Amino acid sequence: MAAILRWCEVHDVELIPYFVLGYFAGMRPEAEIQHMRFDRINFAEKTIDCRTTKTRKASRRHIPLEDAAAAWLLPFARRKGSIMPTNFRKRFDAARQGAAEALKLPLFPWGHDCMRHSYGSYWEAAHRSETGCRDRLSYNMGHTSFKTFDQYYRNDRTPQEAAAYWDILPIAQADVISITA
Fold first, then answer.
1. Taking a C-beta distance cutoff of 8 angstroms, is the pair 139, 42 a contact?
2. What is the DSSP string of the chain?
């Protein structure tokens, strides 16, 4: 994930919202992210107005805008229209290839919901000790039952692994040093 986002920072910034909404908001790639518009990201209220077309009946939920997602999306705050860049598939494949090369690995498989599942697993690890964790994650991801939570997201990732995941920030953001008097 970090390798893809770093590649996008240097080579194709317009892909960043797509990956961030998958990795840091758990949105479905086809049914939600591809239909997402910039004006549905509310930085003041720290929410993402997510509308889904997964089933015949359209539904909607307000996903919390996590700090990591806000840091990555802030440069796009004044944009309008779809978050999907033109020529998406070719650019998406280039980002995957670029990340694999940066990691000195062969092109890695891309599961249908791998971004979404990463979000769910690391969100659960970061919040598992909090009351209502299961309810909140199920809502954030648009699940109607706990079966999916129990099957996929309750996991053995440590809080330290989760902290490292949620600390992946844009280079400019990560390099800022806070000075207080």
1. no
2. -HHHHHHHHHH-GGGHHHHHHHHTT---TTTTGGG-BGGGEETTTTEEEEEE-SSSS-EEEEEE--HHHHHHHGGGTT--SBSPPTTHHHHHHHHHHHHHHHTT-PPPP--TTHHHHHHHHHHHHHHTTSTTHHHHHHHHHT-SSSHHIIIIIS----HHHHHHHHT---HHHHT------
pTM for this model (two decimals): 0.88
- Cβ atoms of residues 67 and 167 within 8 Å: no
Torsions phi, psi for 176 (to 5 deg): -75, 135
What backbone phi and psi angles, to 5 degrees, belong to 43?
Answer: -70, -35
Q: Tell me how far CA of residue 85 lies from CA of 12, 13, 15, 118, 134, in angstroms.
A: 10, 10, 7, 23, 34
- 155-175 tens-digit pLDDT: 778 999 999 999 999 987 544
Alpha-carbon span 118 to 13, nearest angstrom = 21
